[in-house]
Amino acid sequence: VLVEVKVQSLALDRSTNTPVVILQELEGERVLPIWIGPGEASAIAMQLADMEFSRPLTHDLLCSVLRGLGGALQKVIISKVESSTYYAQLIVRRNGEVFSLDARPSDSIA
Predict the structure, then answer these.
(1) How far from chain centre, in Å, is Cα 13?
(2) pLDDT tens across 15-42, in order?
(3) The CATH fold of domain 5-109
(4) Which of 12, 36, 42, 102 is the most exposed place for a label (fewest CB within 10 A)?
């Protein structure tokens, strides 16, 4: 069963000094913390703040490439957890075909 989530917040795990993105289900109270790197945390923070830049950031470039190739991101699925590592799939539609790309959840959120 897929559960829709949104980014609730970014935090810092004080015990490890590692950024954490907190995802919250849209129709409930459960949260999912995912420990991420500082670069991804910065990218997510900039998106949450609706910051705009004169030049595209890496995540903006990926979106532009997808659009330029006629594709559209449909959704992101956090597909599994293995040894404390989260895995995600980008679900992309192009010319009526749907395919998935392996991705890190933190990059997918940003």
Answers:
(1) 19
(2) 999 999 999 999 999 999 999 999 999 9
(3) Bifunctional nuclease domain (3.10.690)
(4) 102
